[in-house]
Every structure is written in structure tokens, then in C-alpha cells.
Amino acid sequence: MKVIARAALLVASSLAAIIVLGPLLWALSTSLKSDNHIFAVPPRWIPDEPTLVHFRRLLAEGVHWSFLNSTIYALGAVAAAVLVGAVAGYALVRYPVFGKRALLVLFMGVMAIPGYALLLPTQIAFVKLGLFDTRLALPILYAAHVMPFAVWMTRAHFAGVPRELEQAALVDGYSRLEAVWKVILPGARPALLSAAAFGFLYSWNDYITATTMLESPDLRTLPVALIFFQGFHGRDWGALMAGVVVATLPPVVLFLVFRRYLIGGFAEGSVKG
Amino acid sequence: MPSPPRLRPGHSARSVRFAGVAKRFGPVTAVADVDLTIEPGQFVTLLGPSGCGKSTTLAMIAGLELPSEGRILIGDRDVTSMPPAERDIAMVFQSYALYPHLTVFENIAFPLRARRRRMSNEDVTRKVRDAAAMLGLDQLLDRVPREISGGQRQRVALGRAMVRTPTVYLLDEPLSNLDQQLRVQMRSELKDLHQRLGATMLYVTHDQGEAMTLSDVIAVMSAGRIEQVGAPRDLYDWPANLFVARFLGEPGMNIFEGEPLDGRLRAAGVSIPLPDTLPDAPDPLCAGIRPEYLAVEPADTAPLLGTVRTVEFLGSRSLVRADIGATLVTAFVSPDIELAPGQPVGLGPSDPCKVRWFNGRTGAAIRAGI
């Protein structure tokens, strides 16, 4: 019985792994093949003569600048969203905020609005504000998209922290700010990291907001830049797959480093929220 | 009346004084008009049922709540609206409130590392080791709170309080999360600690056993007011009113309400002789007799006549519950006396001097000619 259960689990996990990893590995394989091997029949997993020609092509096209843009937008958005979100989450737990429940429902509600519905109004607003096609456009929007989640996540955490911990620090000779900094924040690290990781993945993966809010080639994000390899004259599959590989690396690294917080954090948010 | 025992106070110990302190939360009055003085080095317990305002009173000394009215003085400093950090007090919380991400060492060191104290690392280490040695925590300094037992956490919380020799210790039900055996052990450790430190300690509890054994002075609170302040023995022997009489003691004092008539307190099943010294007995009048001062007497002459409800054999004595008129009376009697439920029984005070008298309308005690 136990053996069957284990075998079933193994088969299911393997299937899931193939479904998830297959395309990624295929992209990796393709990115290392020269153009005339990509459509070789029968297809081969391991390239006969691995080549970095497609990665060089990315560099030649300046895709590394887009990579840098994506990174800066995402990090800026995450920093703003987590900082403001955590302060709001703390205040919503510890201070008598007018209309607290309504605010929380509002934060929850806006998470349910599909982003696409807001694209055109936001674009019009940004044009009028002079933010359209500037470096600030995406960090502001990504931070706005991620913030409700950050508020909920941190609020759920702070609500579970006994008030006495802070009071103990006050009595021990610390100011309120010091108490939060030394006692409350260290304990909130999992919640902050999982909010940050979620925010980074969201910002990193976005395509639609980036194409709507930016026009200049030097402001492009990575997903937008890669789309240009699906040109009008047939697709440059090698370069496209090399780009996919590059784009996948940061999330994978992020997950490997923070997976403990990511999994735990999401569970915490779902149980206590 | 014996005065509370006075210890030589420690050098940092200060007095605490409440002058007309009140605390209101919206329309709810948590603490009403408290006047109380705690001498340096005294162990004072605020005792009362839950919700009586004792924890709020403690929080006001700590500065975690601000009084709505009145002043609080520690030593000769008016701390009424001073932030907690500046009051130089230490507090042990019911939940211990240990910092979960810090080791035992860092938990105890935490107050010393506050910027306002500017203490060198060597001094911190020395003081933490001293406190840890005193509490037997030497072996646990590298653990974090979740890796140690409840009793050990309790000691860490005490260590964090002790380490900086505060002017006043505030202890909010610090033993209530421990199991019975550990509680009794920590109780005597706490008493011992108080004597060694000579510190002013203010203790909050609803457990009268703790209050009785630990305190120099007990302040009994009810509904935001202090009902009586005094040494444990005085409170037990001479309750100032019916609340204290019923609240103190396990079980509390038996109270008989009736009218004074022809030199006796009379009610259904009750006929207790009034002492000659009781001047102009009020009507209604209440007599109070502790369970241990009730004895079984022949039914035809007994001042109290009723029916046995239950008998609990406790080994050295038996606890008898009997209905006398409308009153359920408890009495400790010799286990040799055979009583059965439903049986009529006569009871009376074993010593007339141990009967206490109260004004039935105001509840205040009447000190008959003493």
C-alpha cells in the first residue's frame, strides 16, 4: 500500500516536472543550437555543436540594457511597495485608523480588478501627468499593483505579533520606532521577503503594462525587447530562446534562495489573512 | 494590628504613589479614584477578580496607559505622562514577552543595550552573566526562547527585569502560565528573589494563594476601586467590607444577614448573640464567620440551624455545605463527626471573638469595641 502510494507520487511528480521543466529545457537546448540545427529532424536534446551565437546576438541588439531596465523597475517597485505596504500594514493593526475595515476591503477589492481594464485610463492619465514613456512610469504602476498584496501580507503578520513584545521593548528603554525596528521587523522578515518576492516576480513578468506605458527603445523592459525577435520576416527562434533563458534566470535564482520564505509566507498569508 | 514586615530596601528601590488616579476607556471606567502608597522595598500585590482594573493600574505605572485623572509618582519624580522608557521600571508580562528572534543572552541584555544606557559590551556581558547565574540560566544563554521550557522562559523574563536594577518591578500575573507544581516553586523563588534584591515589587494576580504567600501588603480591587489595603493577615482577619470578606479565603467568609433583635442577630435558622460592645447595631446587620471557625453544636441550642447539603472528606478535616435559611454555608469540621446529606445540623461560632460584623446596607465592617 505504502509502496503503491509512493510510486504514484513519484509518477505524478515526474509528470509535473516534465510539464513544467520540458519547455524550459527545450528553450535552453534551442538557444545553444546554430540556426540550421534548430529544426533538424529528428530533434535532438543535446546540441551537436553548442554555440553562443544567439547570446552574442542579444548583446549586439542591446538586450542587456532591457535586462537592466527590467531589474531597476522591478527593484524600485518592490522597495516602494514593501516599505509603504509594511508601514500601512503595521498602522492598520496597531493604530485606531478611521475606516479601517473599509480600507482593508478596498485593498482586497482592487486586487480583484483585472489590470487590463485599467490600462487605457492609466495611459491617458499618465500622458496628462507627463509620466508616459518615462523611467518613473513602470515603477509607480508596479508598486501600485503589488502594494495591496504587501499590505495584506504584512498586516496578517503584524496582527499575529503580541502587543506585549513592543510594550516590553518600550519598558526596556526603547522608543516606539526603535521597538519596531529591533523587535517587530526582524520577526516580520518572512512576510516582507515573500511580499518582495511576489512583487518582483509580478514586475519582472509583466509585458502588457510595459508595452502600453513605454515607447522609447532605451526604456524597454526585457519581455518587450524579446518580442521584437518575433519579427515580421519570420521568427529568430535561436535569439528568442536565448532571451527566454536569460529572462528565466532571475526568478529561478530568487526562488532557490528564498523558497523557504516564499512557500511559508504564502501559507501564512492564506491562513491568517 | 501587626504592621506589615519591613525589609531593608535595596539601593535602587523607590516608592510608588497614586494620587486620585482614574482611567476611563470611552464610557467604561476601568480604574476609579485610586489612592495608594507603596513603600520602597515592599512587595505589594494588587488582588482582584478579572476585569477589576488591576492590570490597567499596573500598565499606568509602566506608562503603557496614561491615566485620565490623577498623578503617579515614582520616588519623588512625577511620571504621570512620562514615556515608559524614561521611568526606569521593569515589567514581567503574563506571556513573558521574550523576543523570539534573540537568544536568552540577548534577551536579558536587551534593556542594557538601549541607547539611553550607553553601556560597554564588557559591562553588558558581566551583568547578564550575573543575572543568569542568580537565576540558574547559565547553561541556556545560547538558546532561543522556543527551545526552553515555560519555567525557564519565566526566569529569562525575570532576568531581563533584574539585569538593570530598576526602581520598581512590575509583575503582571507572571506565574499564571505555569503548571501547578512549577507555580509553587517559582512562587518561593520569587519571594526569595525579592528578599535578596530588596526591590519594590508590584504584583498583579487573581490568585489569592500567591497574594497571601508573597506579599507584604495586599490591595484588594473590585470594579476599578481599591476595597482594602493591608497586610495579608489583617485582610483575612479584619475584612473592611463584605466584598473582601467573601473574596478572601478559600472558601470565603460565611455571611448571615438579618435584623438585630433582643441582643441577637435573627433570621431564618439564624440566632447569633450580639457582643455587648456592638453599639446601635444597624438594620439590616450582617455577621461573618470563616468556615474554620464554625463548629457543630447540639441542634436545640445552636445559633445556626440548617440542613446538610454535601460533605467532602479532605483527610484532616471535612468540608460541610449546609443550607441555613437562604444561605449556603461552608464549614470545616472534624472528620470524626458523621454527617449525611439531608440531615439537620446545628452550627455555631467556635469562638465568639472570631465573628465579624458588617452594616448590611453599606457593606462596611463594624469594629465592635476593639
UniProtKB/TrEMBL annotation, chain A:
UniProt subcellular location: Cell membrane
SUPFAM superfamilies: MetI-like (SSF161098)
Membrane-spanning segments: 72-93, 102-120, 140-158, 179-204, 237-258
Domain of life where this protein originates: Bacteria
Bilayer topology term: Multi-pass membrane protein
Main location: membrane
Residue span(s) of domain ABC transmembrane type-1: 67-258
Keyword Membrane in annotation: yes
InterPro entries reported in the protein's UniProt record: MetI-like, MetI-like_sf
Protein's UniProt keywords contain RNA-binding: no
Keywords: Cell membrane, Membrane, Transmembrane, Transmembrane helix, Transport
Family, similarity comment: Belongs to the binding-protein-dependent transport system permease family.
Protein name: Carbohydrate ABC transporter permease
Species for this entry: Alsobacter ponti
